[in-house]
Amino acid sequence: MKKVLAGGLLIFVLLLAVVAAGCIGGGEQTGTQTPATVTETKVKTETKVETQVQEKVFVRFAGWSAGETEMKNYEKMIKAFEEQNPNIGIKYEVITQMFHENILASYGAGVAPDVFYVDSAWAPIFIDKGALYPISDLADQSFIDQFYPFLLEPFMKDGKLYGLPKDWSMLALFYNKKLFEQAGLTRPPETWEELEEYAKIIADKTGKPGLAIYLGGFNRYVPVAVSNGAPKPWFEKPEDASWFDNPVVRETLTWYIDLYRKGKTERENQGLTPYVVQPSDVGAGWLGDAFGQQEVGMVISGNWMIPFLADQFPDFKYGEDWDIAPVPAGKEGRVTMVYTVILGINAKTEHPQEAWKFVEFLLGPEGQKELVVKGGQTLPSIKGFENDPDMWPQHKKTLSFKYDQMIVFLWGPKSGPLEGKFSDAMAAAMRGEMSVDEAIEVMKQVVQEELSS
Amino acid sequence: MFSSFSSFYEKARNKEIVAGLTLISIAVILNLVFGYFAMFFAFYLSFFKWDYIGEMQFVGLQNFEIVIRDLIRGLHGAPYLLVPFYTGLKNILLYTLIVVPIQTFLAIVLASFANQKIRGQQFFKVSYFLPATTSSVIVALIFIWLFMKNGYINYVLAHVIPGFEPVDWINNKDYLLFAIATVAIWGTSGHFMVSFLAAMQAIPREIYEAAMLDGAGPIRRFFFITIPMLRPMITYVVVMGLIGALQMFDLAWIMAGANGGPGGAGYTVALDIYNEAFTRIRPGVAAAKSWFLFAIIFTTTYLFQKKYGRAMR
User: Fold this and answer.
1) Residue B129 burial by CB count (10 A; 0-12/13-18/19+): exposed, middle or buried?
2) Region of A379 on the Ramachandran plot (φ > 0 left; ψ -120 to 50 alpha; else beta)
3) Which is it for the CA torsion B109, B110, B114, B119, positive or negative?
4) B79 vs A16: CB contact, 8 Å cut-off?
5) Residue B220: φ, ψ to 5°
6) How far is residue B242 from each of residues A15, A312, B128, B245, B305, measured CA to CA in Å?
7) What residues of chain A lie within 8 A of the CB of B41, using their CB?
8) Which residues of A touch B281 (CB under 8 A)?
9) What is the pTM assigned to this prediction?
10) Minimal CA separation from B52 to chain A, in Å
11) Rounded to whole angstroms, how far apart are CA atoms A123 and A163?
12) pLDDT tens sequence across A90-120
């Protein structure tokens, strides 16, 4: 009896050891294979190599999904690519939730895909850790030269380029023409002061809030600071926290936080319609939703709003009911934020050439025409489509605006966590839980802590 | 494979043990791989600095030091954004203190209703138990909609209480945790009701009959017979409730968001572990925090078991 039990336990422990070795070792062997099956597959592959000279190479491509149509477009493109390159097969994996967390975990397990999306805010982590293959070692300079240079800059390190943007978006001012007419306004606001003034007029005249902003939202505040003369925020070492000591930053941050304090809290205390709200105050999920439901006069949002409005609110027409204007200007010019996603190649990939071939196919002029321009989701990252007949007029309009600076959403190596904590501190100040000075103090401490390792 | 196993089975001297071990092997292996291996790996990981991509660096007790420093600074009153673990711990202890007693009491009350011989009690049983079978994410989304400033709860309260000002339950740091606790109580009471119902039906009728002969009314019967007889089950439910409440993640994730919502009022330890592992890319610190949470859960449940876990003599 005891012996049998001990024997059974021994078997479990052995199995556990095999599994553990597979996981910790991070070797080629997946956790559940016993050594017997491994040798079997080895024999099989050896015989395969003898009989087949032309081995088909498989490249794993992972992205998130911006909806059914985008996925179908990608599948179409992948089919076309496989027809052109019969020796390369593409495995398209769609990760719908928590994309970057998934990719990091797959690196940890040693099963990361060969080609995958990387959001600009996450890129520094991947580039610093050497997780991405330098694209500049694979691509011709002439191919790279087709891209907008300001989109490439954040993904350079020591003279090498680590990813190419698959598309991009920028902030613009979306305004409701009907509400503007009701309020007797004839043109969109030109400056930040006018933006607040107009928001007030709309609230007083129409009974609907003039402007919706996110509670917090550090990246939406940065254009206000930089257009008024602050330097671009960049946090690489603890001393960089001094960005918040700049008097312009203090002034503009106070103005931005007061937008909500004065525009919402104070107005409600006076029994008036608030002129600034956050989306949930008007029962909406996000800015695009609040704008599409015609609950607010203006929002500052990106190109991703355009297909959303066309899809969800077909009766709310561009040109007649709503229009786009450039982001308001500050004392020192006009600044907008740019959001982009790159396609990166895994530094540990076994088939860099094949992976590059695929990336080149997706990001080249034909690929972008099909995936980005016709799809109408965002803006193409290579030059030359500005006057393309397939380009949606709304996107074309955003491209025609002139800005003094375009800031890519990236605050240095710890962008993601910093953005989250800055926004939390700003939200707390907007809700009146702490003063602006306290919020700035917290933000500085966050920078010092996140970057002192 | 099967033929060799069956011949081995035929030859085995003690067939029952072989059969038994074989039958439990799948569950045991799964448990070993996904339970115990994960635990040991987390323990191993808590001594390393790692970013998933590069090599693991041994850092000794540095990860634990980070957690302890977080707690100490929190006790000294640092703002919540700088002491996430302390914030999460403070919230989750308050949440547990609210949720566990109320859900246990409510479960007993519901079970005694369901135990009555009245018409339609089957319908009651089903409707109480329904929340337990519904995904917590969906439940949380429904409650967000109910708790909205212009939602149904404010609508009812404004009609029932004269002069009631609508409260923004989800976006107010004073109410958010209570809103989450309400959802948790609503969602789990029905689940534990079933346990109590089973225990109540096991109470012998004779005791009640004897009490009735002695002139005890229904209320007294409930407090002096039902509750004491349920004591082992109450212990079990409280322990399970403690384990569940201290690890609460899903409701906070949906209702407060990954950063814990206004004032960090909905931030929990489980959320912090998640953020540590995937937004701050510090799996070592996350593992250390997991062990802290494990220690807290283990000691509270152990003490509770030790104090109340003995059956009535």
Assistant:
1) middle
2) beta
3) positive
4) no
5) -65, -40
6) 34, 44, 21, 5, 11
7) 20, 23-24
8) 104, 125
9) 0.81
10) 4
11) 9
12) 999 999 888 988 998 899 888 999 999 999 9
